[in-house]
Each structure stands twice: as C-alpha cells, then as structure tokens.
Amino acid sequence: MSQARPTSLPLIQVLRALAAVMVAAGHAQFEVAGLAARAGLPFAPAAWLPWPAGVDVFFVISGFIIVHAAAPLHGRPGAGRVFLAHRIARVVPLYWLATTLYLALAWLRPGLLGSGGEGTGYLAASYLFWPTARADGTVQPLYSLGWTLNYEMAFYVVFALVLPWGRRPAVAGVAAIFTGLALLGGLAARGGAALPVPLAFWSDPIVLEFACGAGLALARQEGLRLPALLRLALAGAGLALLSLAGEVPSLPRCLAWGGPAVLLVAAAALGPAGPGDPRRAHLLRPAILLGDASYALYLAHPFVVRGVRVVVEATGLAARLGPGPVAVAMLVLAGLVAIVLHRMIERPLTRAARALLEPKRAVNKV
User: Fold this and answer.
1) Coarse DSSP helix, strand, coil percentages of the chain, rounded to the nearest 5 percent
2) What is the tens place of the pLDDT at every residue in 6-19?
3) How far are the Cα atoms of 47, 189, 280, 324, 328 from residue 44, in angstroms, in the given order?
C-alpha cells in the first residue's frame, strides 16, 4: 500500500490513486447498500470493476516501486538495514495511529466499527504485522485493512534480505522465495496439511504479485521502454480483463485480478520518465496529488465512509439525497480527508520516525 513516491513516473502515482479509489468505492457501496436497504430505497452497486482488485494493483505497484527506488542500495554495506528503517518509518506510524483509533472507537462504541476484545496477544500481533487468526478463524488484524500490510511487511523483509546480492540476483531471489511459498501453499492445500497460520497466510499466491512488480522494475532498469500505443493497449486490456474477471469465477485471484494489475502497472511504468506534455501534466495533477495521499486514503476511508453513513442515516439525508449521491459524497470527503491527513499528519510522522530510526549516512530514501 505504501510506496516511496516515484517522482519521475507520474503515471504510477495516478495508478496508485486509482487503486485506492477502487478499494474505497467498494467499501462505500457496501455501506450505502445497507443504508438503502434499511431506508427502503433502491440501490444497485456499480459493477464496472471488481473494486477489491485495487489491492492487487497496489501489490504490483509495491513490487515495482520498491525495486525501482532501491536501485542505489543494491550491493551496498548495510543496505538491508537502511531499507527496512525507511520502510518502517513510512508504513508504521500511520498504521499504528489508525489501529489505535479503531481500537478506541471499538471500545467506546462497539457497534460502530467492530469489536476490540480479541485478547492482548492478538492485539500485539495486529500492531506487529504478524498474521494471527481471530476468534472466528479469519486471519486479519484488529484493523482489518491491515491484512494487506501483513503481506507488505513480509515483502519488505524478504527484499531486505536479498538486497545485498545486487539488482538482478535480488529480483530473482524475491521471485524464487515467493514462488516457493506459493508452491508450498498449493501442495499443503492439495494434501490437506495444516500449515502454521503465518506460513499459510504468506503462502497465498497473491504474493506473486510483488514478484511481478519487481520484475517490471528490473525490466525498466534494463532499458525496456514500450511505445505509447502499446502501453495504451496494455492499459485497455488490463481494465477490460478486470471488468470481465467475474465471468470466470474459478480463476484464482492472482490470475483474475493480479494478471490485469500487471498489465496496468506495465502500461504506467514502461514509458519515458517525466511528465511529458506540460498540458497533460497539468491535467494529471489532481490524480497525482491523490496518489501521493493514497496510503492515507486507504487507511482513513473506512472511518470517513462509516461516519458519513451514520450522519446521513441519523439526519434522514439518505432519503433526500439518494444512495448514489451519498456514495459519491463519501468518496469525495474521503479523498479530501486523505490529502489533509497526508500533509498534516502522515508526513510529519514519517519525518519523525526517520529521524529516530534511520542509520546515519542513509544512502537513499525508499
């Protein structure tokens, strides 16, 4: 979810914005559907795209950006330590803040968001990105959106381990480790073997999406550039395949959603650096701004969406506005809150964490 900003690749920022909005749109429509049902209002959720697939786009972007931004660190002494310090400073503060806010609300208003009473071991695992089963058997942290960050952190640890090997061996190492994990998970499922919860979680084939993104970064570093028409075709194919993914429900997620996500990231990443035409850069500025705040949008939107739902339900605005406008209002407000949160809270927290964690003479900010 959380990546360093690729300033020379604005289309990646646009894609990050799209991915975050997709996830938020899915949750907004879920809330509005319940609201409409209780109010007796008609509402048909938009099914243009599988909205949760925004996570898969995020994972491929993460694989790409981490390798792309870490290029100066390959083979350097202490590179893995520097890399992990940067990633912890970037990811942990805002997630811990969101988790703590969720926990406080769960204790104060148990029916508003969910329960906070899963035990201290579970709470500790939620803060430490360690996959742990809830009482109902689902493997999710207290703030459920954090399941994606449990994968992200595992990717960061793997990449930190292989980073000293050099650029090509590091990417090959990521691919080998995640392929091995996915094979292990598949073999265990076929044989009916029960893996430990963390290992079962990390052996989901979704981890291959990070490896695909890393492969795209290596391809770019090796000089691969695609013409504009081909990249446009890849983007169109990616969106089309995502919209049709529901037609083949037997496909595993890493193919049904991960495959199109790879096409979208390839379209955004394998072009020339820089904004290109100044007119286009101006048009993309709002999307780039939202892409900068995509991590904040991902973590903050459930609070905003649920808050809007509670307000419009309590005031009777749902019947006057209609479900569609309420869903749009949720997304617009979530985007604005995310931008403010990114600038006023996320950035200062990240700077403070870096000052605390970064080794001296850090080579690069990733």
Assistant:
1) 75, 0, 25
2) 447 899 999 999 99
3) 9, 36, 34, 9, 14
Q: Is residue 1 part of a domain?
A: no
Q: Residues 118, 135: contact at Cβ < 8 Å?
A: yes
Q: Could you give the CA distance from residue 162 to residue 259 in angstroms, rounded to a whole number?
A: 25
Residue of 3, 24, 18, 16 whose CA lies nearest to 331: 24
Gap between the Cα atoms of 245 and 229, Å rounded: 24
Residues contacting residue 227 through CB under 8 Å, at least 6 positions apart:
none
**Distance between CA atoms of residues 223 and 214, nearest Å:** 14
Hey, what amino acid is at 35? Answer: L
CA gap 180, 186 in Å, rounded: 10
**Residue 104: both structure tokens together:** 């406080």
Name the packing angle between helices 147-162 and 79-108 (round to 10°): 170
Residue 301 lies in a domain: yes
Q: Per-residue pLDDT tens for 172-193? A: 999 999 999 999 999 998 888 8
Q: What is the DSSP string of 89-127?
A: HHHHHHHHHHHHHHHHHHHH-TTTS----S-HHHHHHHH
Decide: 23 and 335 in contact? Cβ < 8 Å. Answer: no
**Residue-number span of the structural domain to which 339 is assigned:** 10-357
Total count of domains within the chain: 1
Residue 29 lies in a domain: yes
Residue showing tokens 């479900």: 323
Name the pTM for this structure: 0.92
